[in-house]
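quick q for whoever's on today - can somebody do inverse folding on this one?? i tried earlier but teh output was garbage lol. tokens:
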């Protein structure tokens, strides 16, 4: 079951029919005067560019195959979830990447190139990440994560990654960005490689932007060269400090990557706040599942969508990160089922519908300011205690809302959700919500999508108020609601 295109049009109300007193009460669509939560969007307060949302296609044989129809279901913006970021694995089995790719595609991943082509077709972005350099270039002569890349092979490895990018281009599946290492600060018992902060700096000092000359692809167009990412930290992104502190190595790194395992609520100012060379920070991997067979069936249920949504909120609203990429896209705890733990293969799961709110309403925008005042359904005041808390808690049950504006300023979006406990209890009932847009933004039309336990994706009309500068909605607990306003 897929989505239909968001084509609903808002109902315009005659100004005399509805009188809205913004700071106190507002007449709802039913005509009753009730207390309301007032959300005010401030587009003059602009934060990071939000590039997009997506998932990981795992190249290992113990993960389910991602078929082309799976990728269509997840990345088609009209009939699917509308994701736009795909992370893929670079395999390390041979020092000749062309041999490795031939073997991979002919065996376990026959859809490897085709899935990238689908993401590109819909204007998305593909990030390629290696878990280890080839064993011959490492100190332990093994793919296991307790070895290091020998400095005398820095050039060989840079050439290897560049050859991978060229291979993708030659096969009609160009990528947007390439990382040098998955979790270089984690000693893995599987494929991996340890890099010190100084190793990362020295690699880029020696090789510069090693992708120069290989064309990439992103946002529906060819780019002059594949973007570089200096590895994806297992948690704290401060492993970039040495490389970003050196002007020469900093200039060779286009994107900073990090994962939100461990110490999660970290806004990486060294990357974001540089006066002349700021970097996008991409959150390229996180996973939350119930950890054992007793809990696994829960991960595909509605009440467990809130863990994912709270996780996205942490990355986008609190850490100022530009992407959110989930491990993995196709799995029983993810966006579409793999046939395990009470899921049906290739069928959208509740978490897929949940992330689709961000993918459809927030990708390729700037995050902007937002404040909330007024009274909730129970008469209590809205505050940082029950709305947009800064607590790092995937099980948090406070209401969340984040606003976004398109680069041209003609579209404003808001994503709101009111999480409950994993047993479906509690949560914040905001009740009537009035959304105020900037004074110069006159609403031409609006479209919205709502998800709840009973309906995972319902398109609905939005009540635009008489000033054509604000709108009224209802937001009970346990709902996700996203709205797009067109100027």
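ok took a stab at it. sequence:
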């Amino acid at each position: 079951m897929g989505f239909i295109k968001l084509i609903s049009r808002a109902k315009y109300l005659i100004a005399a029919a509805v009188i809205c007193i913004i700071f106190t009460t507002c007449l709802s669509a039913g005509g009753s005067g009730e207390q309301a939560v007032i959300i005010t969007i401030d587009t003059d307060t602009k934060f990071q560019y939000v590039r997009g949302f997506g998932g990981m296609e795992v190249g290992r044989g113990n993960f389910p195959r991602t078929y082309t129809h799976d990728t269509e279901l997840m990345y088609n913006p009209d009939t699917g979830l509308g994701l736009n970021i795909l992370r893929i694995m670079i395999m390390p089995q041979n020092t000749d990447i062309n041999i490795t790719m031939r073997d991979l595609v002919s065996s376990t991943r026959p859809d490897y190139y085709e899935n990238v082509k689908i993401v590109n077709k819909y204007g998305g972005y593909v990030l390629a990440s290696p878990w280890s350099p080839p064993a011959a270039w490492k100190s332990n002569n093994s793919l296991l994560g307790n070895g290091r890349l020998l400095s005398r092979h820095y050039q060989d490895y840079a050439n290897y990654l560049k050859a991978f990018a060229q291979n993708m281009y030659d096969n009609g599946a160009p990528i947007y960005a390439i990382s040098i290492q998955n979790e270089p600060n984690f000693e893995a018992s599987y494929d991996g490689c340890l890099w010190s902060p100084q190793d990362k700096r020295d690699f880029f000092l020696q090789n510069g932007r090693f992708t120069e000359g290989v064309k990439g692809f992103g946002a529906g167009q060819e780019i002059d060269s594949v973007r570089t990412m200096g590895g994806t930290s297992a948690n704290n992104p401060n492993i970039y400090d040495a490389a970003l502190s050196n002007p020469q190595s900093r200039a060779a790194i286009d994107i900073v990557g990090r994962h939100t395992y461990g110490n999660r609520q970290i806004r990486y100012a060294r990357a974001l706040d540089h006066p002349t060379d700021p970097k996008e920070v991409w959150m390229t991997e996180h996973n939350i599942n119930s950890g054992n067979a007793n809990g696994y069936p829960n991960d595909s249920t509605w009440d467990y969508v809130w863990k994912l949504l709270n996780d996205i909120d942490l990355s986008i609203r609190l850490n100022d990160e530009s992407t959110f990429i989930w491990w993995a896209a196709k799995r029983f705890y993810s966006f579409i089922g793999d046939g395990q733990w009470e899921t049906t293969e290739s069928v959208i799961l509740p978490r897929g519908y949940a992330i689709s709110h961000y993918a459809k309403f927030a990708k390729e925008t700037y995050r902007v300011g937002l404040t909330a005042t007024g009274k909730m359904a129970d008469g209590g005041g809205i505050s940082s205690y029950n709305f947009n808390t800064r607590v790092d808690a995937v099980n948090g049950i406070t209401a969340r809302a984040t606003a976004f504006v398109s680069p041209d300023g003609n579209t404003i979006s808001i994503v709101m959700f009111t999480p409950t406990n994993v047993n479906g209890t509690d949560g914040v009932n905001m009740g009537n919500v009035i959304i105020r847009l900037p004074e110069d933004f006159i609403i031409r039309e609006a479209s919205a999508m709502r998800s709840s336990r009973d309906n995972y994706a319902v398109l609905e009309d939005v009540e635009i108020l008489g000033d054509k500068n604000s709108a009224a909605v209802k937001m009970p607990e346990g709902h996700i609601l996203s709205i797009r306003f067109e100027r």
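fwiw The radius of gyration is 23 Å. also The CA atoms of residues 151 and 199 lie 8 Å apart. so keep that in mind when u check it
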